[in-house]
Design goal:
about 280 residues; 15 helices; globular
Amino acid sequence: MWQLLNDWGSLERSQWFGEDKVAGLQATKLEATVNHAYEKVPFYRRLYKEKRVDHFTFDTPGGLAELPIVSKYEFRKSSLEERTASDTDLSSCTIRITSGSSEAPIKILMTPRETSYLMALRLRLFLAGRIDFTLTSDAPTARKLGLNVLLYLPDMIDNLWGSGYTVTTKYLDAHRPLLGRFIIALGESTKFFFDNKEKSKTVLGKWLQVTDPDSLESDCQDMVPVMLKIPEISLDQIKGVLQLMAPYSPSAANADPSIFIDSSIVKQLESEGFYQVLWSGT
């Protein structure tokens, strides 16, 4: 939350900067961005070399005209690894996927810093009256800023999904013992979450890059309904996802939800008494 408030405060202050200060700030950020792209991102390093771009010369906004234009085709045919900076902490990133309305969707990564800045920018526009509403995953911060939370998904949707885990049928058949151990670990970690609230909040805060106690408490409460004691997915949940996908993928409208679920390992553990022993006394 503090990073979000800091970014929002910076945007509030920068609106009063004079022309010279704005130009200087733009030049500094442009130079840093171009140099970072060359030094850390394989895709841009290769592109700059192919186009004979001298990345040391971009110290004024006018230098933007010298940057090579990247087409969707070029970006799409590159791998995610090639487009990702080498010093990125992948475990902290949020995955975003473009709509794919024009061509195939593109997967991109957003660091916590980028996510915070985007949320701050939306709040800035909202509070300035430029937009009527915005989306945020941090409801406590929105309330602290005096905003009204109109819709909150955990309060609206029954059987709201948490994180999901998927594998191919081929992988499932070839690695059943490994996947069995993974599901056992998932059950044990879920038990830990319910039995050790404060330690769980510490782990969650490190993962989400959140330090504000109110935000952490809210995040924990949001996780309670999706941390299943027995990790079984219902057909109704699959149907709900397929209905959401139908406008963008017509084949999803008539898809059989049962083909997306294999609960055989969970059923085996259940029949062996794993979950009964795990949750006994609770």
